[in-house]
């Protein structure tokens, strides 16, 4: 172990993804994954206990999820350096993550070189967006029509993501560790904010806004 290596904790609820990323990062002698976790709650505990240099945080997880975990970690330690991990290159999720305080945002499928570049850049005090995310954000800010999904909270975006992935209400409740009643409450607010009446209209809006 290199005593001068960048200390990283990795948070992702999928074991195969977590193991794969940990293995890839292990190829760089300047990066040391000191702990892994599978939920936002674990991320908060590990960040407080270990005070890592970098936190690699999956956004779409059960429980409080990555977006809420980012806020909680930064509330406790405003200097924490967090890089969001996601499968989404566009839409409101990258923008929301940066607003929540993440210093970087990368796609899970990015090359290992880009992931290491992100870790080093953020560790040195910079910000990092993977090339695809940066391009999409630039075009979205220049678009004539405002992205209507940006009015949603982090939890509402989590639920929208699940709906777009084809999850039913009980499945969303299980995945996010909340009750079906709570899911329906959020769903009602989402429909109200976006001026849609059904999930079918929600999907159509997502297509028009480039989320699908």
Please give the CATH class of the largest domain: Alpha Beta
- SSE class: alpha/beta
Could you tell me the strand content as a percent range?
5-15%
Kindly identify the CATH topology of the largest domain. Answer: Rossmann fold
Percent of residues in helices comes to: 40-55%
* First-residue to last-residue Cα separation: 43 Å
Radius of gyration using CA atoms only:
17 Å
What general form does the structure show?
globular
- The number of distinct structural domains comes to 2
Please work out how many helical segments DSSP would assign: 10
Task: State the low-pLDDT regions, or none.
Answer: none
Spatial strand arrangement across the major sheet: 2-1-3-4-5-6
Give an overview in words.
The protein is α/β, with parallel strands linked by helices and 212 residues long. The chain has two domains: 6-140, 3-Layer(aba) Sandwich (Rossmann fold), CATH 3.40.50; 148-209, Winged helix-like DNA-binding domain superfamily/Winged helix DNA-binding domain (Arc Repressor Mutant, subunit A). It is 52% helix and 14% strand. It has helices at residues 15-25, 40-50, 65-76, 92-100, 112-123, 131-142, 154-164, 169-176, 180-194, 199-208; strands at 6-11, 31-37, 54-58, 82-86, 104-107, 128-129. It starts with 5 loop residues before the first strand and ends with a helix. The mean pLDDT is 86.
Topology (elements, then pairings):
Blueprint (H helix, E strand, L loop, with lengths): L5 E6 L3 H11 L5 E7 L2 H11 L3 E5 L6 H12 L5 E5 L5 H9 L3 E4 L4 H12 L4 E2 L1 H12 L11 H11 L4 H8 L3 H15 L4 H10 L4
Parallel strand pairs: 1-2, 1-3, 3-4, 4-5, 5-6
Helix pairs in contact: 2-3, 7-9, 8-9
């Amino acid at each position: 172990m290199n005593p001068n290596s960048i200390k990283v904790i990795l948070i992702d609820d999928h074991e195969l993804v977590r193991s794969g990323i940990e293995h890839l990062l292990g190829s760089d002698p300047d990066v040391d994954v000191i702990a892994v976790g599978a939920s936002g709650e674990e991320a908060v505990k590990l960040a407080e206990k270990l005070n890592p240099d970098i936190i690699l945080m999956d956004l779409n997880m059960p429980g409080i999820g990555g977006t809420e975990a980012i806020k909680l970690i930064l509330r406790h330690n405003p200097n924490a350096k967090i890089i969001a991990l996601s499968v989404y290159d566009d839409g409101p999720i990258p923008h929301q993550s940066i607003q929540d305080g993440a210093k970087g945002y990368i796609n899970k499928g990015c090359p290992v070189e880009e992931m290491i570049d992100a870790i080093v850049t953020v560790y040195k005090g910079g910000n990092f967006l993977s090339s695809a995310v940066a391009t999409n954000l630039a075009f979205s800010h220049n678009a004539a029509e405002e992205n209507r999904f940006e009015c949603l909270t982090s939890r509402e975006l989590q639920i929208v993501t699940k709906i777009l992935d084809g999850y039913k209400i009980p499945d969303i409740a299980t995945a996010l560790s909340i009750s079906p009643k709570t899911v329906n409450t959020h769903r009602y607010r989402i429909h109200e904010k976006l001026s849609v009446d059904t999930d079918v209209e929600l999907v159509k809006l997502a297509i028009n806004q480039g989320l699908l």
